[in-house]
């Protein structure tokens, strides 16, 4: 019997509510499984950890995360620990990513049937058929380069940050994008996004992406987009970016958030942050990759505690966890098809299972229960 | 009789075609004017300058621009001078901005009646009533900080760029945003965009914007948005950003392009890059500000020479030139209302004056002629 350790970080705001549903789904899948055992350990992280321990990322949490096969996270932060607080949750998240070495952030921007496009802010003619994976470099670039705050000598009236990339950092994220592209047949095209007409780090980026793909994955189509033009295309004709959008940390932060509002509901979308290239589902040799999985929505303090948050982003994050870190592709697909069924089920009044974000009035728990039922 | 020198830089692609129409409009306004004389001088700039002189920004062009009261530009660049060319147009543009000291880039994202929202990729319910001015810092930040290319010692496998801001740079652009906000009654709110949860330069930005507005313009409402969340809001509920969006160079590059596709046609939108804060239209003492005016669209090589490009972005840029650099507010308004009339005129078949980008088949010249006629 295979045994896996999964650390659960419920976090703040709606985090605990949505994580509880994903845990419910995982338990339903594995509680009576003869071949797989999941050991779930819940730890403090984020604002709740600051309140209890004074730190966003307590040493015991970090230790547990490092020893785990994978981590499932809710969401962190909230007005209680805002910009003016001495200790804030966000640096804890950056420290956790860095300590775990999860350099590859993967975000599908589409889930489920086109029945959801009614929720998109874009016209149906623009948004129908959009299918983009954003692959964002997560532990390099301007997030982790040297910086200087204002009021520090010399030049106290100046502050700066460094956007820095090495050849090796760009190679490894390019290989992750390639693996994601190859998981489809025919392989998806890769759209690499940079600002090579201005930035030296982007010129390195463009050169290394090109060389890596040409020499290691010649079967994948590649084009390059400037970040300003990509931000425009995502709104005006997003289908032109169908495939994999590969980009550095800061551009990825901006573009993946922009992309995530296109398909209609943020609440549905999962993300995976990996410490290595994922194995192809078709390959016979699964290589485990430790990873941090979380929905892409925030902690939504305004609706916390009301039991109305959409747990699907977290449930689908759990599916990605099974796929990429535990090699349980079949179980991942079970979850995904159960979610799809739940979303597509209709009753006399129309779509049956919709939380408030999708215009319905079904609660967080009911969605989880229904998905467990379908499983 | 007041006399002004205006340098005209037609540039590449559709640049010469659209600039010709704006020049036509300016001539119609002032050719027989008893009080204002406009001296228009055309110079080489961009790809066409590279072809003729080997440089994107020839010394004589720079000299003329420095001596002028204002500059009207078409668009530059094209595949002929792509990333692999030794000399490219873009560094010429950055050098021109820096040499002229035009630190404030101003882009309204709305023009004309709501009749145009049909062209927006966003649903009408989302895009109706959106009215945003983007104010982008244009000669600081990561565009002009120190950088190191790959293959340069030490650490040849690494490249980096520096995002750097001083207190003074942020103060002066904040004052421009404040002037734009105060030109409306009641003053528009300012949404300052940064990434203060990660970047030191953004923390300086946020602090200086806050202090400058609180002490000098307490009547203006201010809030702060993270750049990822602003990129999302622009698509999902852009009206929440109505007012002035104030941001640094790179974020402004991305967000202003993203914002520009919201109202429906890129081809309509002008921009102004100013070397100082603009005078309020209501103030009695106009202070001239030298400036560079251009439509926000690119050189569109695919449609160059066909006579179908939309000249309205350039014509409205000429209006901004009259307003901000020459203090001819009334003439600016004359152009703007003529354009509005042209856009709103209908014939039996529907909207009469639409170029291809707006779904019509009226040519570049016809639009210019018609606007002159209305004037
Ligand atoms: C919280 C913040 C530091 C973080 C980031 O910028 O990476 C967030 O926006 C994200 O995208 O996960
Ligand atoms: C051409 C390029 C260098 C320029 C920029 O990034 O500033 C352009 O995108 C713009 O916004 O005017």
From TrEMBL, chains A, B:
* Any Gene Ontology CC annotation: cytosol
GO biological process terms, semicolon-separated: L-leucine biosynthetic process
EC category: oxidoreductase
The superkingdom of the source organism is Eukaryota
Q: Which reactions fall under this protein's catalytic activity?
A: (2R,3S)-3-isopropylmalate + NAD(+) = 4-methyl-2-oxopentanoate + CO2 + NADH
Task: Quote the pathway field.
Answer: Amino-acid biosynthesis; L-leucine biosynthesis; L-leucine from 3-methyl-2-oxobutanoate: step 3/4
A Pfam family (short name) is: Iso_dh
Similarity field = Belongs to the isocitrate and isopropylmalate dehydrogenases family.
- Protein's job: Catalyzes the oxidation of 3-carboxy-2-hydroxy-4-methylpentanoate (3-isopropylmalate) to 3-carboxy-4-methyl-2-oxopentanoate. The product decarboxylates to 4-methyl-2 oxopentanoate.
Provide the protein name. Answer: 3-isopropylmalate dehydrogenase
């Amino acid at each position: 019997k295979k045994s896996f350790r999964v650390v659960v970080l419920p976090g703040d705001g709606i985090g605990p509510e949505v994580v509880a549903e994903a845990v419910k789904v995982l338990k339903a899948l594995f509680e009576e499984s003869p071949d797989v055992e999941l050991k779930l350990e819940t730890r403090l992280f984020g604002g709740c950890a600051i309140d209890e321990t004074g730190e966003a990322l307590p040493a015991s949490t970090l230790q547990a995360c490092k020893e785990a096969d994978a981590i499932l996270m809710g969401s962190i932060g909230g007005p209680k620990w805002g910009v003016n607080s001495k200790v804030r949750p966000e640096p804890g998240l950056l420290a956790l990513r860095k300590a775990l070495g999860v350099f590859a952030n993967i975000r599908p921007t589409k889930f489920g049937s086109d029945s959801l496009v009614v929720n998109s802010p874009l016209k149906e003619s623009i948004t129908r058929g959009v299918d983009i994976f954003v692959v964002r470099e997560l532990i390099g670039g301007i997030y982790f380069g040297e910086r200087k705050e204002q009021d520090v000598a010399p030049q106290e009236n100046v502050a700066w940050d460094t956007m820095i990339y090495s050849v090796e950092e760009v190679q490894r994220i390019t290989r992750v994008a390639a693996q994601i592209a190859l998981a489809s047949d025919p392989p998806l095209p890769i759209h690499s996004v940079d600002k090579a007409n201005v930035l030296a780090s982007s010129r390195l980026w463009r050169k290394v992406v090109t060389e890596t793909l040409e020499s290691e994955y010649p079967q994948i189509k590649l084009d390059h987009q400037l970040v300003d033009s990509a931000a425009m295309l995502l709104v005006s004709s997003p289908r032109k970016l169908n495939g994999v959008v590969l980009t550095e940390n800061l551009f990825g932060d901006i573009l993946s958030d922009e992309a995530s509002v296109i398909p209609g509901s943020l609440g549905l979308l999962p993300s995976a942050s990996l410490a290595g290239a994922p194995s192809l589902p078709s390959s016979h040799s699964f290589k485990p990759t430790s990873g941090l999985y979380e929905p892409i929505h925030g902690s939504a303090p305004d609706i916390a505690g009301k039991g109305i948050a959409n747990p699907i982003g977290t449930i689908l994050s759990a599916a990605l966890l099974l796929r990429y870190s535990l090699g349980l592709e079949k179980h991942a697909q079970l979850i995904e098809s159960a979610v799809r069924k739940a979303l597509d089920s209709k009753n006399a009044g129309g779509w049956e299972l919709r939380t408030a974000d999708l215009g319905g009035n079904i609660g967080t728990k009911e969605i989880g229960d229904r998905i467990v039922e379908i499983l």
